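Comment thread on ticket #2218

A.B. wrote:
> Attaching the input chain for the structure job we discussed in standup.
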Amino acid sequence: MKRLFFGCLLLLFCYSNWSQSYKSTHSEGFSQAKAFYLKHKKQFSEIAANHHLSPKFVFCIVSPELANFSEMRNFMELNAIKLVYLQLGSDYGDFSVGQFQMKPSFVERLETEVKKHSKLKRSYAAYLYEHNNRNARSKRLESLESVQGQFHYLDMFCAVLAKREIDFANEEEKLKFYATAYNTGFYKSEEVIRSEFGKLRFPAVSKKKYNYAQIALEFFEAIK
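C.D. wrote:
> Ran it. Output below, let me know if you need it in another format.
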């Protein structure tokens, strides 16, 4: 009887989290993200054209990060740990940077993956480094701190995901996969990424958690 009672409580808790839209609890952040999309639609469109995607699809991959982005928090985190990363690398100083909240380790993994494909290596040569020394880390961080650099890494991310050649039932399922891979780790297996579809882990610093892909889908439905 006790197991049934606690099971019902758990189901009720999960339902309350899923049934409450992100927009209804974060209207300001939702509007902030949509405004960013309209301001930078040209950049999203350019990435979309490179990978046979729609501009809003590309935007929705990072939309939860844009909705949760804080200039002040970004400034404080960046200045607090930048020197550690420059001196010792992402094993010691790994932190989220910029509107898309990309970590140095995320970009380093992207670089490693891109180097495996000769065509991608040629296309993104300007953002690849032979040695992961202080000079390379400094240039990488400089790119991460710029909106242009973040868009370039988002383009690289889409290129790397496309190489996996996964068949999706529809665009919504594809977005769930891309968004979850972006949030949880694009280098993980398809099985592991799909296992994250229903988990409430975002944002990391908040007591109330949401599912990252579900927020992306909410934006996908809201953008016309």
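A.B. wrote:
> Thanks. Noting for the ticket: Residues 24-222 form a domain with the Lysozyme fold (CATH 1.10.530).
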